[in-house]
């Protein structure tokens, strides 16, 4: 199944982003590259916010956010209530992010994992469906914190 996938990275991960974009296009996916496209220092929140907006507006169904660790850009993406971004480093967490959390974005740390592990994470993420059922109520609270009694 083909998807519209947005990718965004900072300077630390632009190489991995470019490689993933080419790989996804070769697999038949429609890729929206939100930058950055070089080694010049940039601020990861700017690119995380772009990715969250692309999910919110429907420009993309799924997203892949990358920075050196994956941490900072995942925080930025998650500032948008329409985005559910999970930082993953291996396929099991990528699959669980989809199954239990209906994640629509994954974050990867380019300084933490290699390209083959990144591809394995993306493959698992894209091939895994949300389980629904008991997880629906929890996922709804992620985008609507006012529904939580806390």
From TrEMBL:
Signal peptide: none annotated. It comes from the Bacteria. The active site is at 67 (proton acceptor), 100 (proton donor). One of its GO terms (biological process) is carbohydrate metabolic process. One of its GO terms (molecular function) is ribose-5-phosphate isomerase activity. Pfam families: LacAB_rpiB. Keywords: Isomerase. It is an enzyme of class 5 (isomerase). D-ribulose 5-phosphate binds at residues 10-11, 68-72, 101, 111, 134, 138. Its EC number is 5.3.1.6. Belongs to the LacAB/RpiB family. This is Ribose 5-phosphate isomerase B. The lineage of its organism: Bacteria, Pseudomonadati, Pseudomonadota, Alphaproteobacteria, Sphingomonadales.
């Amino acid at each position: 199944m083909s998807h519209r996938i947005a990718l965004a990275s900072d300077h630390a991960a632009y190489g991995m982003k470019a490689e993933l974009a080419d790989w996804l296009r070769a697999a038949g996916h429609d890729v929206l590259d939100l930058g950055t496209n070089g080694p010049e220092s940039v601020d990861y929140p700017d690119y995380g916010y772009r990715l969250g907006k692309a999910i919110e507006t429907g420009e993309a169904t799924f997203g892949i956010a990358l920075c050196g660790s994956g941490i900072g850009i995942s925080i930025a993406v998650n500032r948008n209530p329409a985005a559910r971004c999970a930082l993953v480093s291996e396929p099991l967490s990528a699959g669980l992010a989809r199954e239990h959390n209906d994640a629509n974005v994954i974050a990867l740390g380019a300084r933490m994992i290699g390209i083959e592990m990144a591809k394995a994470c993306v493959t698992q993420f894209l091939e895994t469906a949300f389980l629904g059922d008991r997880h629906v109520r929890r996922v709804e609270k992620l985008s609507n914190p006012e529904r939580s009694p806390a």
